[in-house]
């Protein structure tokens, strides 16, 4: 048996979940940062940006799958199995909807708007707070920091609601029916990302309440 496998046998089994959750959070930060930068330099004729988002989404899927595999193999978990599943699913949804937003921007050949950049910045900020929360959730070493990050995520979601409302008003004023349908759809996908981030924050807050 390889030395690495022997070492793994004696590692606390519940620790692997935090390692995987941190991997997912790191991927979301990198994905959202690249998304924000790509929106600002968007070129509908260059699909490199779309491919990058697809790669991040697949990377996140792999980490999420590993979490479910570990959940099926390990009896000892750091918190309720249902909460682990809920947190993994919520994080995966964020990546899925970031990718979906990018895909529909390309499919609809939707012209870049200032609101896209506003949304992408909010999404990036939300992912940064998720990263902070998950790192401090590890071993419940700093529950106050987790709560603070969750509060910030909720605030970001509220701001995103306002951005959506204002963007829709400006969009409808254009009177371009076809473009309205396309852009409105993208706006809704972008706003869903922040909704999913809030769902993740709520899940982490519930975990803290149970174990604090």
UniProtKB/TrEMBL annotation:
Any one Pfam family match given in the protein's UniProt record, by short name: PhoU_div
Top-level taxon of origin: Bacteria
Gene3D superfamilies for this protein: Phosphate transport system protein phou homolog 2, domain 2
Family classification: Belongs to the UPF0111 family.
PANTHER family, per database record: UPF0111 PROTEIN YKAA (PTHR37298:SF1)
Name the record gives this protein: Phosphate transport regulator
Species assigned in the record: Frigoriflavimonas asaccharolytica
């Amino acid at each position: 048996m390889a030395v690495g496998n022997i070492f793994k046998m004696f590692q606390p089994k519940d620790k692997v979940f935090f390692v995987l959750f941190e991997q997912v959070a790191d991927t979301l930060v990198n994905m959202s940062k690249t998304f924000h930068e790509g929106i600002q330099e968007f070129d509908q004729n260059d699909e490199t940006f779309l491919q990058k988002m697809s790669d991040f989404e697949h990377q996140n899927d792999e980490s999420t799958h590993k979490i479910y595999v570990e959940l099926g193999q390990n009896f000892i978990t750091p918190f309720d199995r249902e909460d682990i599943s809920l947190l993994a699913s919520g994080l995966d949804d964020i990546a899925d909807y970031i990718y979906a937003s990018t895909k529909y921007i390309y499919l609809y050949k939707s012209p870049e708007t200032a609101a896209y950049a506003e949304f992408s910045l909010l999404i990036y900020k939300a992912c940064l707070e998720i990263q902070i929360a998950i790192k401090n959730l590890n071993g419940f070493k700093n529950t106050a920091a987790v709560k603070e990050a969750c509060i910030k995520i909720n605030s970001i979601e509220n701001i995103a609601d306002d951005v959506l409302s204002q963007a829709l008003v400006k969009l409808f004023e254009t009177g371009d029916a076809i473009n309205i349908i396309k852009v409105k759809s993208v706006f809704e996908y972008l706003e869903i990302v922040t909704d999913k981030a809030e769902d993740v924050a709520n899940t982490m807050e519930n975990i803290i309440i149970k174990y604090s």
